[in-house]
Structures are given as structure tokens and as C-alpha cells.
Design a protein that fits this description.
With 128 residues, this protein is an alpha+beta fold. Helices cover 34% and strands 24% of the residues.
């Protein structure tokens, strides 16, 4: 009898995971959805997915949609989530991709894209 291998929770590559998260954000009408390729500058994740909501209710709705859909469709849960109570910046760590959902004002204040302006930005092509 062959030894059993650990069951893989998802067959998504890290890029497919990032694009799927971006697509889910866009389905909830997030604005300015961006994927940053962090592989050359970061050892804890491959991609940042950054999105904006127009208010805290929309930020929470975007985060919730990603959470529910990634669990249902791909068996993935975030390792950690922070910021849900205030909902001006919610970060969800899916290991290969980290989701950052901001209100527009908070995104402008922290300017992650400017902080990481030396990494490639990828097109958020939908991955159904």
C-alpha cells in the first residue's frame, strides 16, 4: 500500500489565487483593484491584492465575499485577518496572496503602491 500524501487544499497557483481574489473584489464593485508581484522582495507572500471600497460597509462586504468564496470554491481560509472591526483597512493573509481592502481615504493615506513602487503590477484578469 502506497503512503498517502497530504491532501492539497487547492490546485490554484499563487498567481491564480491572486487573480481569483482580485476578481472577487471586482464582483463586489471594488475600485482600483491592483495586484503587486511581491516575489522578488518578500519572503512571506507572493502577491498583494489591493482594492478599495467607497465606505466601511463596502470594505467589509468585499472582504466577506472573498472569505466565503475562497472557502467554498477552493477550500482556502486566511491564516489571519485583521481590521474587520473598524473596516477602514482589512488585511487577510491567504499565505500565497495577501488581500488589502481599504476605504479610499485610508488607501490614499498609506499608499502601499508607492511604498512598493519597485515591484511589478499585474493585470487583475478574472479567474473564474
Amino acid at each position: 500500500m502506497a503512503p498517502t500524501r497530504p491532501r492539497k487544499l487547492t490546485d490554484l497557483t499563487s498567481l491564480e489565487q491572486a487573480r481569483r481574489i482580485a476578481a472577487l473584489c471586482e464582483e463586489k464593485l471594488a475600485s482600483n483593484v491592483t495586484i503587486l508581484d511581491m516575489r522578488t522582495v518578500c519572503d512571506y507572500t507572493d502577491f498583494f491584492v489591493i482594492a478599495s471600497g467607497s465606505n466601511t460597509r463596502q470594505v467589509k462586504a468585499i472582504s466577506d465575499e472573498v472569505h466565503v468564496s475562497m472557502k467554498r470554491d477552493h477550500g482556502l481560509l486566511p491564516r489571519a485577518v485583521a481590521g474587520e472591526r473598524e473596516a477602514t483597512w482589512i488585511v487577510a493573509d491567504y499565505i500565497d496572496a495577501v488581500l488589502h481592502v481599504f476605504t479610499e481615504e485610508t488607501r490614499e493615506y498609506y499608499r502601499l503602491e508607492d511604498l512598493w513602487n519597485d515591484v511589478p503590477k499585474l493585470e487583475a484578469v478574472a479567474s473564474a
